[in-house]
Amino acid sequence: MQGDLKILTGTSNPELAKAICNHLGCQITPALCETFSDGEIRIEIGDNVRGDDVFVVQATCAPVNFNLMQLFLMLDALKRASAGRVTAVMPYYGYARQDRKVSPRAPISAKLVADFLTTAGTDRVVTVDLHAGQIQGFFNSPVDNLYAAPVILDYLRQVEGEIVIVSPDAGGVERARAYAKRLNAGLAIVDKRRDKPNQAQAMHVIGDVRDKVAIVVDDMIDTAGTLCAAGEVLLKNGAREVMACATHPVLSGPAIERLCNSPFKQVIVTDTVPLGDKLNACPKLHVLSVAGLLAKAIHNIHTESSVSVLFV
């Protein structure tokens, strides 16, 4: 076992960090996170961490670059303060969608973020539902990619009526199949043609959704274009009711307006990304917490127990 357990947080998702601490029965270690008048970030750890097992909770959601830089500086400060081990707990891993070259002269941004994290001083990374699982291979240190499925599945088991799990595109079939298997439900796929980034056109449904509760499952909701198009085409194909669930509610651009005007009865998300005023702006949103899941992972890592038990 490492030294004492310490939990720190930046400014991206302090409520989630507090909830994690409540599960663990500890307090957040104080840290000064301010911005100088010229926009530079000031970080100062407020307690002795020498030899301790430190976990920094920081989702790299919007403003992505600011939250990433804040995390890098916190990791560097902890490294220079002689922390025994530093783990970056990133409920949402920013830039995860840029995991490969999509054009001849494009960066692989997810790899660059991994390099920055390593250089800044992290010994381990804990994240939830990486958009691309191969990002784990971008690190030369342990990466625990947790799944929010158990949290979401517990809620979906309360849904009344015959359900069918729907993947909004071909790339999400594996995820949807896992949900369908655990719920003993049917599986359907929405065939989608993407014309340009953040714009998608749903074409038709592969599978039987008639007179069933169709639940669209995805890892994140960004502009909600894909999701809402899927909801419309499912109703046209005879679904009795449509719901949606996703781990990361990024909800950028017109997402809130689209969800409010969508046919979805409910949109289930987790608190990997803080919603703030967006939650009040869209009554269809229902937030489940992954604090318990992250707390168990942190406890098991700290006590050198198996983390894989959380993947069952």
From TrEMBL:
One of its GO terms (cellular component) is cytoplasm. It is found in: Cytoplasm. Binds 2 Mg(2+) ions per subunit. Its EC number is 2.7.6.1. CDD domains: PRTases_typeI. SUPFAM superfamilies: PRTase-like. The active site is at residue 192. The keyword Transmembrane does not apply. ATP binds at residues 38-40, 97-98. GO terms for molecular function: ATP binding; kinase activity; magnesium ion binding; ribose phosphate diphosphokinase activity. InterPro entries: PRib_PP_synth_CS, Pribosyltran_N, PRTase-like, PRTase_dom, Rib-P_diPkinase, Rib-P_diPkinase_bac. SMART domains: Pribosyltran_N. Keywords: ATP-binding, Cytoplasm, Kinase, Magnesium, Metal-binding, Nucleotide biosynthesis, Nucleotide-binding, Transferase. Its main location: cytoplasm. It catalyses: D-ribose 5-phosphate + ATP = 5-phospho-alpha-D-ribose 1-diphosphate + AMP + H(+). It comes from the Bacteria. Its cofactor is Mg(2+). NCBIfam families: PRK01259.1 (NF002320), ribP_PPkin (TIGR01251). PANTHER family: RIBOSE-PHOSPHATE DIPHOSPHOKINASE FAMILY MEMBER (PTHR10210), RIBOSE-PHOSPHATE PYROPHOSPHOKINASE 1, CHLOROPLASTIC (PTHR10210:SF41). Involved in the biosynthesis of the central metabolite phospho-alpha-D-ribosyl-1-pyrophosphate (PRPP) via the transfer of pyrophosphoryl group from ATP to 1-hydroxyl of ribose-5-phosphate (Rib-5-P). Belongs to the ribose-phosphate pyrophosphokinase family. Class I subfamily. This is Ribose-phosphate pyrophosphokinase. It comes from Nitratidesulfovibrio vulgaris (strain ATCC 29579 / DSM 644 / CCUG 34227 / NCIMB 8303 / VKM B-1760 / Hildenborough).
